[in-house]
Amino acid sequence: MGAGLMQAKINHIGVAGAGAWGTALAQVAALAGRRVTIWANRAALADEINSQHMNGRFLPGRVLAREVVAVADPSALHDCDALLVACPAQSLRQVLSTMGRLRAPAAICAKGMERGTGLLMQEVALAAQPKAAFGILSGPGFADEVVQGLPCAVTIAFDDAPTASQFCEALGCGGFRPYASGDVAGVAVGGAVKNVLAIACGVVEGRGLGESARAAVMTRGFAEMARFGQALGARLETMTGLSGFGDLVLTASSRQSRNFALGVQLARGAQVAGRAPLAEGAATAPALVRRAVQLGIQMPIAEAVAGIVSGDIDVDTAIRALLSRPLKSEH
Predict the structure, then answer these.
(1) In 3D, which of 271, 276, 272, 234 has the Cα closest to residue 255?
(2) What is the largest CA-CA distance in the chain?
(3) Is 9 a catalytic residue?
C-alpha cells in the first residue's frame, strides 16, 4: 500500500472514536457489507457495543449491527484497509499520536480548527503523522438520523481521486450517499466555518431576532466562508456543496446542532466555560479569526462569535457592531 494510498478494494474499515458520529459511521460501514472494527477509549463502552450491540451513552435506544466489533486497543486498527477518524477536533492530534504509525489511508471526520495553532483538520493530521494519507469526510448529517438509516449525503475528499472514490464505494449504502471530491481544503473549511456560523444563528434564535435575521446571517456568513476558503485554495463549488452550504443549512437551523444550541444559550446569558464541550465552533472561532487576519480576510460575523465565546464582548454589543457596519455592495 504505497504512500498510504489505496491499492485494493476496501473490505475492513477501522473507526477511531466511538462517540455518536463514529458509531453512526461504523453502522453505515457494516450495513454496506464491510468488516468493521471501532476503537472505544473506554473498555466498558467496547464491552457494551460487543455484548448489547448498543452505545447507550451517545446513541441511546439505537441497535447496532452485529458486524460492528469494538476494541479498546487502537493497535487493533492496524490491519484495516481504510480508517475513519471520528474524534472531537481538539483531540485529533492526541488521538492520531496514540494510534501509532498509520499504514492505511484515513478520512478525518472531525470538523473544526485546532485551538492553539489555527490548523485545519487535515493539517493537524499531517503534522501528527507526516507520512500518512489523509482525506476529509464531512457534510450535513446528524448521527442519530444516520444510525437509523435515514437519508444522508456527505462529501469524501482526498487529493488522490481513486482513493476518494473507493471510500465512497465502501460506505455507500441505503440512505447514506457519499460524493467524491479532490478538494480536501474546501471540505475541511466548510466543516470548520459552518460551526462558527451555527453559533451566530443560535444567538439570533436565542435573542428572538426572527427568521429574516437568521437568513441574513447564514447568507452573509456563507460569503465569509467562501472568502476564507478561496484564500486557502479551496474551490467555490465545494463551498456551495454538501460540505459547505449544505452543512451550514443543517447546523444553523436545528437545536440538534450543538453549536446552534450553544448560540441559543449564549444569547440567554450562559457562559462557554463548563458548557457544551463538543460544540466545536467555540474553540474554532478564535482560531478562525486569527488565521483570517493573517490572510487579510474580513470575517465580521466570525469575529463577533469569537468575541462572544471568549467573553470579550456581550451579545448586544456584538449585534450592534454588526448592524452598524458601513453599507456596501453585496458582491
Answers:
(1) 276
(2) 61
(3) no
Distance of alpha carbon 25 from alpha carbon 18, whole angstroms: 10
Give 276-280's long-range contacts (Cβ < 8 A, gap of 24+).
277/88, 278/19, 278/88, 279/195, 279/199, 280/88, 280/89, 280/90, 280/110, 280/111, 280/112, 280/192, 280/195
Domains and CATH numbers, the chain: 2-182 (3.40.50.720), 185-323 (1.10.1040.10)
Among 38, 23, 29, 24, CA closest to 11? 29
Would you say the C-alpha torsion 67, 70, 76, 80 has a positive or negative sign? positive
- pLDDT tens digits, 81-103: 999 999 999 999 999 999 999 99
pLDDT for 274 beyond 70: no
Mean pLDDT for 237-242 is: 97
Neighbours of 219 (CB within 10 A): 12
What are the two backbone dihedrals, phi and then psi, of residue 135, each rounded to the nearest 5 degrees?
-130, -170
**What cell was used for 88?**
472531537
The pLDDT of residue 277 is 54
Residue tagged active-site, from 9, 131, 194, 328: 194
- Mean pLDDT of the chain, nearest integer: 94
For residue 64, give the C-alpha cell. Answer: 447496532
Closest of 48, 51, 53, 59 to residue 21, by C-alpha: 59
Residues 6+ apart with CB under 8 A from 196: 221, 259, 281, 284, 285, 288, 301, 302, 305, 306
